[in-house]
């Protein structure tokens, strides 16, 4: 079978997506684990005019920078198509899929250091596990 | 206390965040594993191909899909990451902040929020590979065109098993369009009534002999055959025009002529001579002297056969004092290098370079030279520095 890769955005105006990348995983508190939607993860901050960023998650702070990807990434979206071949007797119930280019990624904000604990800003109660993985808490 | 409604933004804000400012990052209302979103890494050249819709993915459900441009084939490899890559779309591409009422507790007047739609588990990377054309031969060999079919009066109305149109082949063979076309050409396939077909060897032999026979009868010059005349004559002899034309393509080439007397063809000496050598060796190995005598006898007048023409077609072996010749055609071997070398070493455990070369020179593996192939699949021994190197299996 053949899957077409479609692109409606053209060369110049392909929407740019972003990646914020950090080491390890973020674990939400158990009560939120299955309804992460809309939950706040953290605060991304650019403290100066340099390309240095901080990401504050709960009482952890990560420091990172904006990097340009060596090779761009495209974001493809799998789209199931309605079977238009039905009248040709061609429909053996194989779902027709096409891939659509929905975005391009050229940069990411990368946090490759381990988190630093913030002690001076006890925004949240200390409930999270001590691990390299930072945790998310609802505000 | 009334909280300010957050201002929803996306990737554009993340990428252009102003100094001394901050953005809240949250999970998108549509956040999930989102298997429908895939990240594909491309270099700038392939990016252009993708943006201009010149690529397709090909493969059967049970195969690993390949990525094809017009001319090349790439393997798709998923490369996982243990990092968390938060994927943030630009605002406006997915519904954002529809249901953001649970926000609050921030000290800003208006909070700017960017939402993460998915945590990407990795990316797909592309690696150029050689096209997987072995299946093409397998498919087309299911049902070659032959005498019985040529004798059928009625046009085939319904589609038969083992008949493949271009679209059928594209759906089944993992190769780019250009590579598929080159593969069809290398197999001497012909499109008959919308289906790509191999023509039975016996049929090709008969039509070629008939063409040569007519050339003698009509005093045609083998390097100036008039297409119209050939086709008409062969058609009168009972061969479909399509096949007559195919015969010219397989054994000849068009002559550049501006004389205006229609298209002219020249029969290719090597291809015609190789054809007759194959015919002679079909029955099995022959003593070289006998073979040569029979071969020279069978080729058309005016053509010169030399044993060099048979590189990659025949092998010789010494049995006692006699030299024997047998058919061993490079074109019958698999295109996959590992399988090719395994077949070669099954045929012979030791190969001299001069013999081996003609059986591997058509192998084309991106990123691997012929030298590289030899290093990977063979062991090279050279008893003395000026001796011929010998290649054995690794």
Automatic annotation (TrEMBL), chain A:
<dbReference type="InterPro" id="IPR018607">
    <property type="entry name" value="Ctf8"/>
</dbReference>
<dbReference type="GO" id="GO:0031390">
    <property type="term" value="C:Ctf18 RFC-like complex"/>
</dbReference>
<dbReference type="Pfam" id="PF09696">
    <property type="entry name" value="Ctf8"/>
</dbReference>
<protein>
    <recommendedName>
        <fullName>Chromosome transmission fidelity protein 8</fullName>
    </recommendedName>
</protein>
<dbReference type="GO" id="GO:0007064">
    <property type="term" value="P:mitotic sister chromatid cohesion"/>
</dbReference>
Automatic annotation (TrEMBL), chain B:
<dbReference type="GO" id="GO:0000785">
    <property type="term" value="C:chromatin"/>
</dbReference>
<dbReference type="Pfam" id="PF09724">
    <property type="entry name" value="Dcc1"/>
</dbReference>
<dbReference type="InterPro" id="IPR019128">
    <property type="entry name" value="Dcc1"/>
</dbReference>
<protein>
    <recommendedName>
        <fullName>Sister chromatid cohesion protein DCC1</fullName>
    </recommendedName>
</protein>
<dbReference type="GO" id="GO:0000775">
    <property type="term" value="C:chromosome, centromeric region"/>
</dbReference>
<comment type="similarity">
    <text>Belongs to the DCC1 family.</text>
</comment>
<dbReference type="GO" id="GO:0034088">
    <property type="term" value="P:maintenance of mitotic sister chromatid cohesion"/>
</dbReference>
<dbReference type="GO" id="GO:0006260">
    <property type="term" value="P:DNA replication"/>
</dbReference>
<keyword id="KW-0235">DNA replication</keyword>
<dbReference type="GO" id="GO:0031390">
    <property type="term" value="C:Ctf18 RFC-like complex"/>
</dbReference>
């Amino acid at each position: 079978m053949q899957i077409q890769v479609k692109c409606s955005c053209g060369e110049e105006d392909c929407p740019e997506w972003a990646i914020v990348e950090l080491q390890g995983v973020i674990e939400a508190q158990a009560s939120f684990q299955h309804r992460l939607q809309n939950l706040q993860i953290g605060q991304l901050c650019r403290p100066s005019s340099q390309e240095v960023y901080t990401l504050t998650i709960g009482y952890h702070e990560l420091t990172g920078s904006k990097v340009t990807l060596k090779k761009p990434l495209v974001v493809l979206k799998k789209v199931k198509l309605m079977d238009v071949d039905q009248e040709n007797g061609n429909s053996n119930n194989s779902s027709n899929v096409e891939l659509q280019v929905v975005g391009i990624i050229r940069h990411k904000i990368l946090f490759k250091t381990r988190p630093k604990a913030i002690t001076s800003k006890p925004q949240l109660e200390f409930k999270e596990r001590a691990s390299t993985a930072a945790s998310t808490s609802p505000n | 206390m009334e909280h300010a409604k957050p201002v929803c933004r996306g990737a554009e804000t993340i990428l252009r965040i102003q100094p001394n400012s901050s953005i809240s990052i949250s999970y998108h209302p549509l956040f999930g594993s989102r298997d429908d979103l895939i990240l594909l890494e491309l270099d700038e050249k392939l990016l252009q191909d993708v943006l201009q819709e010149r690529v397709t993915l090909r493969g059967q459900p049970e195969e690993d899909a390949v990525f094809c441009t017009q001319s090349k084939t790439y393997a798709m490899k998923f490369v996982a990451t243990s990092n968390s890559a938060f994927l943030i779309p630009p605002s406006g591409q997915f519904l954002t902040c529809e249901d953001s009422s649970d926000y609050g507790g921030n000290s800003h007047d208006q909070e700017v929020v960017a939402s993460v739609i998915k945590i990407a588990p990795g990316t797909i990377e592309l690696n150029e590979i050689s096209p997987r054309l072995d299946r093409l031969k397998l498919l087309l060999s299911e049902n070659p065109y032959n005498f019985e079919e040529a004798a059928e009066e009625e046009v085939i109305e319904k589609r038969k098993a083992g008949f493949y149109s271009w679209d059928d082949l594209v759906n089944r063979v993992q190769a780019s369009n250009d590579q598929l076309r080159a593969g069809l050409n290398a197999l001497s396939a012909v499109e008959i009534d919308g289906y790509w077909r191999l023509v039975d060897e016996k049929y090709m032999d008969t039509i070629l002999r008939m063409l040569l026979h007519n050339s003698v009868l009509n005093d045609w010059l083998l390097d100036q055959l008039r297409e119209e005349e050939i086709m008409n004559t062969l058609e009168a002899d009972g061969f479909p025009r399509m096949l007559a034309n195919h015969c010219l393509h397989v054994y000849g080439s068009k002559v550049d002529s501006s004389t205006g007397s229609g298209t002219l063809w020249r029969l290719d000496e090597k291809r015609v001579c190789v054809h007759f050598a194959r015919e002679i060796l079909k029955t099995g190995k022959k003593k070289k002297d006998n073979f040569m005598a029979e071969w020279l006898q069978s080729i058309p007048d005016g053509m010169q056969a030399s044993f060099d023409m048979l590189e990659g077609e025949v092998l010789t072996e010494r049995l006692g004092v006699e030299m024997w010749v047998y058919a061993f055609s490079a074109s019958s071997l698999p295109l996959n290098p590992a399988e090719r070398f395994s077949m070669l070493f099954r045929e012979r455990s030791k190969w001299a370079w001069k013999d081996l070369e003609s059986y591997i020179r058509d192998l084309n593996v991106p990123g691997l030279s012929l030298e590289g192939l030899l290093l990977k699949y063979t062991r090279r021994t050279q008893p003395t520095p000026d001796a011929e190197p010998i290649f054995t299996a690794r």
